[in-house]
Design a protein that fits this description.
mainly beta, 0% helix
Amino acid sequence: MSTTSHLRAGATMTDITSPLDISLAGSFRASYVDKVFEPLRANAVF
């Protein structure tokens, strides 16, 4: 009797940078995103 096992792996990266002119939470005054210094990326390995 033979048994086989399979190894499955994957990786992904996606850009989750907020769009410009979106409102920011946590302030008493309304403030908005006006510039992006670096893109925000999410990585996952499974």
